[in-house]
Amino acid sequence: MEQNPFFSEIVVGKYVNKRKLRSRCYEGIPDEHRVVAYKLLLGVYETDTTLFQEIDENNLNLYKMSLASNTDYYSEEYFTSQNGLYVSYQISTSVIHQIFIDIRRIDLKHRIINGVDLSYVYMNVLVMTAARRPYLEYVQGMCDLVVPFLVLIFDDNSNSMQKESDVFACFDKLLDRIQHNIISMQETPIEQTKNKLRRTDRKLYRHFKRIDLNLHFITFRWFNCLFVREFDLRTLLRLFDSMLSADTDIFLVNFAVTLLISCRNSLLEKDFSEAVSYIQNIGKSDIGVLEILRNSVLLDIDQNM
Fold it and tell me: What Pfam families is this protein classified in (predicted)?
């Protein structure tokens, strides 16, 4: 691993320097290294590189223990597993039905990969999550959070159980970071975004107040789905590179504020309905995400000077 140019300055001996890893990954991760880098950033992997294979095998064994070849509560209307195995946990049918509905809403190109319908992977991962996190269960939008990991990991024609296990491991660690905000309905980051926008761009903040545009209305989906619904996959993965390398809570607030400010000239000209429509399609507008990422880092620095 240390012989790889991307990791050469990050790995010393057999250990990963987490500080250097975060610094390097924040600037963007090459496609071929994202899976390993994400596992490190999320804490799926420990810093000892010699343990990577053992960790994967242990996670796979634990995942397999949660699967069974027949489960009574999976009715025929739900997705067919390619390997004939389904999560064996029992959860309420209403939660399962909501998960099923949300999976059907995912873009087909993120469900059918290399000709294989992977909807059952979403189902297994989310049902297992709901069973293992009863205080969270399932909240609408969590399905979107599986997308970047599944599309990234299932990147070729092989359809191994290890890949399914890897998707769950990454998603599970991501929830460790963000579930407190999901449970609180994003109350804290939304309030922090309001305060930071008021301090950073008072004119834009006052304009939103004048047209009666509540920032909760804008940012709830952003934070609940981590911008998955706003950007194309390539842009989203670049965003995840930086988000997973940083304090996620701080990053999301700074990115949201900087994103709004980057569109301020257009937004200042719009009334309520026009502004809402513009923001709901902000990923389709001509914005430079890399510049927004750079400026979001400077947001706190500028305010502390």
Answer: RabGAP-TBC
Q: Would you identify the CATH topology of the domain 49-177?
A: Helicase, Ruva Protein; domain 3 (1.10.8)
Q: Which residue type is seen at 288?
A: G
Sequence ranges of the chain with CATH classification 1.10.472.80: 185-302
Q: How far is CA 183 from the centre of its chain?
A: 16
Q: How far is CA 11 from CA 42, 53, 105, 238, in A?
A: 17, 17, 41, 22
Q: Which residue has the tokens 């996959």?
A: 233
Percent of the chain with pLDDT over 70: 93
Closest CA relative to residue 267, chosen from 195, 259, 194: 259
Strand partners, 202: none
Say how many residues make up the chain: 305
Kindly write down the DSSP assignment for every residue of 190-215, as one continuous string.
HHHHHHHHHHH-HHHHHHHHHTT--H
pTM: 0.92
With contact defined as beta carbons under 8 Å apart, do 129 and 142 qualify?
A: yes
Residue-wise pLDDT for 136-158, tens only, equals: 999 999 999 999 999 999 987 67
Short-list 115, 82, 84, 119, CA closest to 100? 119
